[in-house]
């Protein structure tokens, strides 16, 4: 994993950790450290020792969802199926905010 990817992952984990008191009510509780790569676990536990494994797993899911949309657009797979890619991106980001327990209604910003 390159430095940029590590930095993005670390900062997303910090964001999720800050939102965790709200987000935990919207997330499965069955995550464990053994679900994650040992190197990632060591880094997270060193940087954010109070983060539970479910929060670290959520941070990875947030990253995957964000990265997935960008990768699909870069590879030209969004435009053939989405008439308005910007609306798709906005809806996904709003859903991510809701998954963190930071918004409760559709269309809220």
Would you mind describing this structure in some detail?
The protein is mainly α. It contains 4 helices and no strands. The protein has helices at 3-23, 38-47, 53-74, 85-99. It is globular, with a radius of gyration of 15 Å.
User: What is the N-to-C succession of helices and strands?
Assistant: HHHH
Strand content: under 5%
What is the number of beta strands? 0
Uncertain segments are none
Helix content: 55-70%
Structural class: mainly alpha
Write down the Rg.
15 Å
Indicate the overall shape. Answer: globular
Q: Report, as a whole number of angstroms, the end-to-end distance.
A: 32 Å
Number of helices: 4
How can the largest sheet be summarized? none
The overall pLDDT, averaged over residues, is 86
Concise structural overview:
This protein has 109 residues and is mainly alpha-helical.
Question: What tags apply to this protein structure?
Answer:
109 residues; mainly alpha; 4 helices; 62% helix; globular
Question: Secondary structure elements and their pairing?
Answer:
Blueprint: H1 3-23, H2 38-47, H3 53-74, H4 85-99
Helix pairs in contact: 1-3, 3-4
């Amino acid at each position: 994993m390159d430095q940029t990817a590590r930095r993005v992952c670390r900062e997303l984990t910090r964001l999720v950790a800050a939102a965790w008191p709200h987000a935990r009510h919207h997330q499965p509780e069955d995550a464990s450290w053994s679900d994650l790569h040992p190197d990632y676990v060591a880094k997270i536990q060193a940087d954010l020792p109070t983060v539970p494994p479910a929060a670290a797993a959520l941070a990875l899911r947030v990253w995957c969802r964000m990265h997935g949309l960008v990768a699909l657009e870069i590879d030209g797979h969004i435009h053939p199926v989405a008439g308005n890619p910007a609306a798709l991106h906005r809806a996904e980001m709003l859903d991510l905010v809701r998954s963190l327990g930071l918004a409760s209604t559709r269309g809220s910003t």
